[in-house]
Predict the structure of Transcriptional regulator.
Amino acid sequence: MQHGPAVRRRKLGAELRALRNSAGLTSGEAARLAGWHQSKVSRIETGTSGVKPADVRLLLDVYGVGDAQLRELLLVLSGAGDGTGRHHWWHAYRGVLPPTYRDFISLESQASAMRTLETTVIPGLLQTPEYARAVTKAALEGASEERLDALVEVRLARQDVLRADPPLELSAVLDEAVLRREVGGPGVMARQLTRLVEAARLPQVRLQVLPFSAGAHIGVTGPFVIFSFSRTSDLDVVVLDHLTSSLHLERKEDLRAYLEAFNALSVHALSPEDSLDFIAGAAAGA
């Protein structure tokens, strides 16, 4: 278990090491071709130090990597922009966002798919402005109106990943409690559930409801998020949120366990079609 930046450095280093091996180069040969000392290549590959996007570009050139998508992903992991002009947009909110939240947004912006179990609130990518404000206000009791405004702006800006080209593929299992918990009052909740119905009809969104009648299930241990990356599964990561921090699980056995848990939850949950009807019914009765 590590915090996000360390996970990304190590994953980036491992990928660069694999590319070097594929190119048939030793670390010393790669360093010589890049004009560096061998220790720099070693530090990058072990993730013990950060790496500049320019250094990643140079290594990719040395290794003869021409795959544009793979190059882009590795450059984004190193901190470079993704060419859309939106990458790292959250830096403008550095003063109000804790590092763990910034790192979560970074992963979210780079991922191709996201699986999430939610047991308490609507997923952030599907929240209305009113709902997002009510949730944020409850979580940060005493926060100023200015900070609340900024955090809601961030929550809404994050939702652009669902409208990107290609969009993030979102699969969410929602405990029925998420739909029954009245956040912000009846009006806010009714509009939020209507928004959820609209989202459930999007091709890039798959929603399933885990009804109370399902009884105890593996998800009672708490919510989690699994991020997947299209170019390489070695970059996949599980994120567990705590009150003051987030933990990132990257070991293959951890990823496998959470993927199996998510698949089990999907089996016990209502189908997407029945879930849509369930959410629509909840919205009508809200």
